[in-house]
Amino acid sequence: MKKDSFVSIADCSKESIVRIIQKTEFFEQNPNQKLLEGMICASLFFEPSTRTRLSFETAVNRLRGRVIGFSDAATTSSSKGETLKDTIKMVSNYADVIIMRHYLEGAARYASEITDIPIINAGDGANQHPSQTMLDMYSIFKTQRKLEDLTITMAGDLKYGRTVHSLLTGMSHFNPTFHLVAPEELKLPDIYKQFLDKQAIRYFEHTDFSPEVINESDILYMTRVQRERFTDLMEYEKVKNVYVLNNKMLDASKDNLRILHPLPRVNEIAYDVDDNPKAYYFEQAKNGVFARQAIICEVLGIN
Ligand code: CP
Fold this sequence. Notes:
Layout (H helix, E strand, L loop, with lengths): L13 H16 L10 E6 L5 H12 L3 E5 L13 H9 L4 E6 L4 H7 L5 E6 L5 H15 L6 E5 L6 H10 L5 E5 L8 H9 L3 E5 L4 H6 L2 E4 L10 H7 L18 E3 L20 H20 L3
């Protein structure tokens, strides 16, 4: 059985992304399978989560595997000073795969280097969130019936937003055009712009969340300004309400536009948008179960 970790979307070829999307489609049609019977999945969440943890655990349950783990590291021996290395080595003795969210950038990569069982990165600091990307790309595919040649607007916290960093990397295989809407303080880091330049991908940076940008978009990917990433809370206060999408702003948008958000939202999408047929963020979160079923099978070499 081939075993591989899923740490960054940058490690995934176009072919493997397409394969995971096809598997996701299969699991949406056939969610209950006995593919993980007899297997144990460790779910280690060193940072808070609702959707990622619960959808991964639902995915394991739907595949008839068993879950061990924690959702609050304060209840574990890491609170006594046990290192991440020792924790991963211990859990590797108990489980067949580790699903892990950690506040340190690079933590999942580090974990993958010290164990022989697959690590699935469920978010590492402001770095990457590759399983979110797979459900985002599946949601894009489902709503647009293609991945190629789309215009995608990302708005909000592009600096610390790990879902943004992973999504633009994943979509880079499919000739997108990006509009990047962020205040100066939260602009996309240079390293990702250099990546886009190297791939010859068109992108346009804006500080204004203008009707022109919204009306050109096929996908509008809203993000939360993440309070937990700021060391200076005064800086957070300055930008926390920088963009708020409301229904009126969608009046002249394209028919095929869909609004995505990795969630949780705070107030960057007004509640009146929820009933707009172009709002897709709750279905997007539901797709997370199927995408995560596909990822777990992929890392365990289960076809
Ligand atoms: N999208 C996402 O990662 O949500 P949670 O933080 O609730 O897992």
